[in-house]
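Operator note (shift B, R.M.): manual run for Short-chain dehydrogenase/reductase 2 requested after the automated queue skipped it. Running by hand, logging everything below so the morning shift can see what happened. Input copied straight from the record, untouched. If output looks odd, do not overwrite the archive copy; leave it for review.
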Amino acid sequence: MCHHCRTEQVPISSPRQQKRKATIYNKQAKAPPLSANTFFPEVAEMEAYRKEQPNPQRVAVVTGANKGIGLEVVRQLALEGVTVVLTARDEKRGTDAVESLRRSGLPNVVFHQLDVRDPAGAAALAEFVRTRFGKLDILVNNAGHSGVAVDVEGLKSLNIDPQVWLSGKATHTVQGVIKQTYEDAEVCIDTNYYGCKRVSEALLPLLQLSIAGARIVNVSSLRSELKRIPSESTRGELADVEHLDEERIEGVLRRFLEDLKKDQLESGGWGLMLPAYSISKVAMNAYTRVLARRWPGLCVNCVHPGYVDTDINWHTGVLPVKEGARGPVMLALLPAGGPSGCYFDQTAMGEF
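Run finished. Output pasted below as returned.
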């Protein structure tokens, strides 16, 4: 179930615009339920509509953005005229990324160092945005950690078919080259779930000051879908949207870590393919739904960007980063009245 932001009144100047607006918003009637595999809105229509509207200066923060999907999201948002704060844990890599974008003709990008695992860093970022811009319109939580130790050359030598990888059927094939440790799992969960929560909470007061209407986009994964958790009771806990909160989500994460420490993942009903990464992204999706319900004035969504060729999957992905950024950018630039509390598979709405 998705929670929808209220629709704002936008001036209509022609029958053609009016027809398009009716198609996208249906503002005279309650919007019909959105089903899986439905585009919301149709990407081409949304982009055409957006280009016809006034573009007040918007400010965005993108985490984990010195490379890969994060960097491409920054580039695409900057091309749309958004002022973007590119954040990265490594200061040199972050500043180098900003300089590269500026040399390509995008002066509207600035850098701020951020380790999403550091509460003081999140607070410092919020203070920087408050002092420099006075508000925030877009937050893209992209920083991530794979949660495993990998023999990269060994993995490449297996030459696993992408469809086999995506289906999860490669679990036993990769056992010799991908190792899940408790320490890596802790870092993964602290980055992917708690890092997202940490940064979101620090920036929420500034997001509420957005005139255009704030957007939070949590970059997730195909491995985040609830059907990938073998335990029916755990799936049920996280699918119960009305009773979902941080306490419930974090209780699930604690159980996962306890079972991992006891080497009881399989008997505990957890998936075995990238287990910590998977449950951390499941938790991120659940947190997305919590935020959407708690803050109905914001549009908060999560998105699987596709199987993209990036460092986090050791370059086993098949899509270019330009394609991987399409979904996050679409959700970051949703017009008023867009969906909230929803999961997208690239640019199509999917099932949690």
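Quick read of the result: The longest strand covers residues 83-88. Residues 84 and 109 are 5 Å apart (CA to CA).
Leaving this for review. - R.M.
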